[in-house]
What does this fold into?
Amino acid sequence: MKQKKFILQEHEIPTQWYNIQADMPNKPMPPLNPKTHEPLGVDDLAHIFPRECCVQELDTEHSWIDIPEEVLEKYRFYRSTPLVRAYALEEALGTPAHIYFKNESTNPLGSHKINSAIPQCYYAKQEGTTNVTTETGAGQWGMALSYAAKLYGLDAAVYQVKITMQQKPYRSSVMRTFGAAVVGSPSMSTRAGKDIITRDPMHPGSLGTAISEAVELATTTPNCKYTLGSVLNHVALHQSIIGLEAEKQMAMAGEYPDTVIACFGGGSNFGGLAFPFMRHNILDGKTTEFIAAEPASCPKLTRGKFEYDFGDEAGYTPLLPMFTLGHDFKPANIHAGGLRYHGAGMIVSQLVKDGLMHGVDIQQLETFEAGMLFARTEGIIPAPESTHAIAATIREAKKCKETGEEKVILFGLSGHGLIDMPSYEAYINGDLRNYELTDADLQQSMSRVPKLIND
It folds into this structure.
């Protein structure tokens, strides 16, 4: 009988996170103060984020960071998550490739986001914070942060991208169930939101607008800290629990991936799965290919420019060195709300520059076609974000069918789509369409990006 699932015992769950910054051949360039253009240190960031997160953010020396025992206790409620061999998908594709997926949809919040929400709230509580705030795109991060805040007795305020509140109303309901205050962004509750609405009364919102509002609230509210679900280095660090488990589970299966694929918004899901495997390319000479699958309508890795840019629309955040479409970029209203972000994380951006990974952009209709096939073969309805990874995996599996190569492909199923059924209904009814990003739109969105990097 063929083994389908590979699950670690609780005592086998990793007790340290992996920090790829320490092993990178070229370290990420530092975040800069937007006024002085000087590199920022821990003290500069700690008025926004929990201090320990700031320490982790800038740590380029330690490859391994101990996971606090209290965080490990919370992880053990739902970890390990399964590594699954996708036999039925392989058969449907007629491919000789061996396809595995790391299933992060099995945890109580339905996506990988809880892996970082717990430690961020833990660190906030440890330093005496009483309130946390954040942004959320599709809502997975907002749900996770709302739950983690409740675990530690913190009050949470979530700015959810306005268009995704309409597309995925039940995610807002879940956040409120956990006690969070949820506001559609842009809103009239902050100066940043008012300015955005004044410029564009019909603005559908983006992660950039929601970040601006959350950062403003954090910096103007006593005893409040901002938490982030992706992009920054400490978030990818926390998410490395995914790849570290997968590494052990692939060994249980007696295989090692030739290709690792994950969807890409800001980098937390991709980095969480890929970075533990990438360390073997860097340190041990492995030749695994790493592919980040992003929307064709928001293609920062494939069409963006490497520049210092703001992480938010209003320009409240530090300047970050990243592949960006411009902080003014207004993404199309695709249903993969968690991928509608204008910039890539600093680590991923440097790794792309160094040729250690690459991006592919995929149109919305192809992603839903892939999601439907996956649902009908493997019995799991994936989140629209995860369908990008599935579509990229199908592309690679079809190449193997043409060449006859028996490659091992590992992809990340970052979350389930059971709260995303209106988007599947729209696809089934033929109401979805693809979106094209024109060169003119890209040039306009890049017009306000500071030119601090020489080509």
